[in-house]
Amino acid sequence: MNIIKHIFLFTLLASLFFVCSQVFARQSNDVVSKHAGAGRFPLVADAATALVVDDEIEKSVLIATENFQKDVHAVTGKTPDLLKKVALAGHAQVVVIGVVGESSILKKLEKAGKLDLSALKGKWEVFHRQVVQQPFPGVDEALVIAGSDPRGAIFGIYELSEQIGVSPWNWWADVPVKHLEELHVGKQPFTSKEPSAKYRGIFLNDEDWGLQPWAAKTFEPETGDIGPKTYAKIFELLLRLKANFIWPAMHPSTKAFFHYPGNAQMAKSYGVVIGTSHAEPMLRNNVDEWDHDRLGEFNYSINRDQVYKYWDQRVEESQGIDAVYTVGMRGVHDSGMEGAGSTEEAAKILEKVIQDQRGMLEKHIAADAATVPQAFTAYKEVLGIYDAGLDLPTDITLVWPDDNYGYIRRLSDANERRRAGGSGVYYHASYWGRPHDYLWLSSTHPALIREEMMKAYRLEARDIWVINVGDIKPLEYNIQLFLDMAYDVRPFEQPAYVKEHLTAWHKGIFGEQGKAIAEVKWKYYQLGFERRPEFMGWSQTEPTTPVFESAYHPFVAGDEVERRIDAYQAIETDLQEIKSNMDEEYFPAFYQLAYYPVRGASLMNQKFLYRQKALSYQKEGRLSAADYAAKSRVAYDEIVEETAFYNQQLLNGKWNHMMDHAPRGLPVYQDPEIVLAERKPVEHSVGISLERGGIVQGKLPVFNNMTKRKHFFDLYLKSEAEASWQVVSKPDYILLNQSSGVLVPTGQKETRIWVEIDWSKVSRSESKVTGEIHLEVDGQAESVPVELNNMEEAKDVRFVADNGQVIMYAENYSHKNTNGRQSWQLVEGLGHSGAVMGTSPLKQPSVKGDFEAQASLIFEFYLDQRADEVSIDFQALPTHPLTKENGLRLGYSVNGAAVQVLNFETHGRSEEWKQNVLRNAAIKTAQHISLKEGINTLELFWVDPGVLLDIIRIKTCSSLEEGYGLLPETKK
Question: Which domain of life is it from (predicted)?
Answer without folding.
Answer: Bacteria
